């Protein structure tokens, strides 16, 4: 299978270590990975702000960059959700349909397509998992506490097989962190309060490292942690799954 590696713009600019970890992890799993060098933003920021028509160019360019691959894999649930759900603004050509149907968040790709839950990682820390709203309720990467359904989580499946890692159960494990893209700009006070509540839950639970599959949420939490000098580290799940001793 040919896999196109999609690196969201904010990861490319601010967290290149997450992109590197994603690539190295996929290569360790013997995936044939390609990186289209002309890729740009998937259009999510414009779409989230109500400018979907203005995002069509970015969306169409994304399709052009990734239409030749069997799968598109990215370390961002929110961006992948945008591709799968909001590229309906484009004419549904075979290329657009193919891209939408074959775009996968990293953890989902490893568990559901590669059929793996153990990737040879080692990380001897107490870890708290932040389940982002787009990944949890959009991509259905895990069960939601408000629904009466059997528990499942692709992220937990992977983390529970990391040697030495203790996955800490939180009190409010699938509550929003308050980021929400431009929500954190237009509703700053509410966003900050939600983020601080989320951080307190991790601290109260004895967490050493917060992880998740959406670095946009982690960026929001990390900013609040650093501003208040809280004793927590923040790492994308790709970085943990790529760690070995």
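^ Assign residues to that structure.
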């Amino acid at each position: 299978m040919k896999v196109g590696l999609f690196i969201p713009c904010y990861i490319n600019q601010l967290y290149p270590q997450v992109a590197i970890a994603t690539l190295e992890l996929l290569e360790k799993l013997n995936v044939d990975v390609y990186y289209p060098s002309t890729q740009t933003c998937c259009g999510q920021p414009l779409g989230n702000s109500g400018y979907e028509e203005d995002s069509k160019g970015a969306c169409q360019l994304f399709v052009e960059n990734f239409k030749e691959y069997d799968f598109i894999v990215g370390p961002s649930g929110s961006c992948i959700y945008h591709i799968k759900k909001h590229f309906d603004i484009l004419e549904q050509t075979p290329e657009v349909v193919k891209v939408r149907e074959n775009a996968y968040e990293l953890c989902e790709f490893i568990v559901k397509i590669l059929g793996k839950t153990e990737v040879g990682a080692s990380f001897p820390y107490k870890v708290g998992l932040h389940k982002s709203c787009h990944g949890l309720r959009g991509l259905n990467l895990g069960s939601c506490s408000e629904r009466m359904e059997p528990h499942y989580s692709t992220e937990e499946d992977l983390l529970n097989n990391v040697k030495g890692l203790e996955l800490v159960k939180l009190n409010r494990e699938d509550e929003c962190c308050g980021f929400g893209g431009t929500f954190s700009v237009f509703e700053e006070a509410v966003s900050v309060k939600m983020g601080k509540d989320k951080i307190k839950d991790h601290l109260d639970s004895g967490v050493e490292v917060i992880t998740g599959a959406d670095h946009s949420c982690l960026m929001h939490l990390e900013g609040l942690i650093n501003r208040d000098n809280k004793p927590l580290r923040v790492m994308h799940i790709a970085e943990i799954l790529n760690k070995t001793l």
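The first helix runs from residue 9 to 14.
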